[in-house]
Input
Amino acid sequence: MRRIVLLSSIVGLLLALTGPALAGPATHSTEDVTGDVFVCDTAVYTVTSGTISIVVHEGASASGNQNFTVTITPRKVKAVDEAGNEFSIVGAIWFGGTINANTGGEQFTDTEKLQIVSKGGGTVDSVNLTFHVTAQPNNIVVKDFDFGTCAPPE
Output
């Protein structure tokens, strides 16, 4: 289930960001995430305030190879659980990929490392996902790992 959520969130974000990102070597933007929801094994956290900083970089080599990276960082993100307890969300999401112009091969990696931290400073839940795909014209290899207790917000 989490992999489906992860893949759909990646596709949605890529569709939203690639248009502006392809206009130059790097773009910086900020987005309000109030209302986003983290569904975890033992609690649901709703974001009450905060933003994410998004940095997108894309490039191409002289030989035609292409690459892109996206880094998403929470900024002063606060959330509450169902009982009204307050938490902070910290960490980062990074994903990127390359396309080899000569072989047609592609690779894509996504890492989502977010912690939901109590007022006392302890981590109570986390998004801890790593996903990698290598695609060659005759072969596709997918590796994914989920060590967290939460799905990323949709």
Notes: The chain has a mean pLDDT of 86. The helical segments are 2-21. Residues 10 and 31 are 16 Å apart (CA to CA).
